[in-house]
Design goal:
Layout: H1 6-21, H2 35-44
Helix pairs in contact: 1-2
Length: about 55
């Protein structure tokens, strides 16, 4: 797993939470209903399909 800065982590989780709140399908099975909590859980499982390009 790539090591992300706290800003990259916040951006990835925030972007995924927005996708979830707009109706995107979930990538994990969970009992949680808050999009932010779901996005954090997906991030910790390392399954969010968002990458970071660095120069």
């Amino acid at each position: 797993m790539q090591s992300y800065t706290r800003y990259e982590r916040a951006r990835i989780i925030g972007a995924r939470a927005l996708q979830i709140s707009m109706g995107a399908p979930l990538l994990i099975k969970t009992v949680k209903s808050d999009p932010l909590e779901i996005a954090i859980e997906e991030f910790q499982a390392n399954i969010i399909p968002i990458t970071v390009k660095r120069k």
